[in-house]
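Record type: monomer structure entry
Structure origin: computed from sequence
Chain ID: A
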Amino acid sequence: MPGRTSAEYIHLIHTFEPAYDGESRILILGSFPSVKSRESGFYYGHPQNRFWRLAADLRGEKIPRDPDEKKEFLRRNRIALYDVIGECDIRGSSDSSVRNAVPTDLRPILEGAPVRTIYVNGKLAEKLYRRFQEKTCGRPCVPLPSTSPANAAWTFPMLRAAWAVINRDLDG
């Protein structure tokens, strides 16, 4: 993994391609891949992150397990995934440690897919989207509570109720 350390911070560059195709109706943006996601090579790779369980539950499907199943799930359900941060200084996986964030370029996704709504997964994704990308994209975002295990205050039923809004764009 490319990076240089500085007082326990590591400078990392996002290495995942955005997951989308010409049929993607929604775009879900996280902040930056966690250590586990970077190890697994795909979004929401931490086994305790509730994203895949939640998305599968909302779409009435089984939970995709590996990157290929996850990519197929996204394609089938017309969901695009990416992150708001293209590179940053970070300690581990902690959103609260992110410094010197450089935004990703969302134009290829928004120009290449009929995205109806942009959703952001968690507070940092919302904050940085509003700061860096909202003006460029000319589109607001819909904030959703983080699926991270660090967001333990939100139970799975609470997350499900909040995230059910994505079905409006996917089913309509």
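Annotation 1: The two ends are 41 Å apart (CA to CA).
Annotation 2: Residues 32 and 85 are 6 Å apart (CA to CA).
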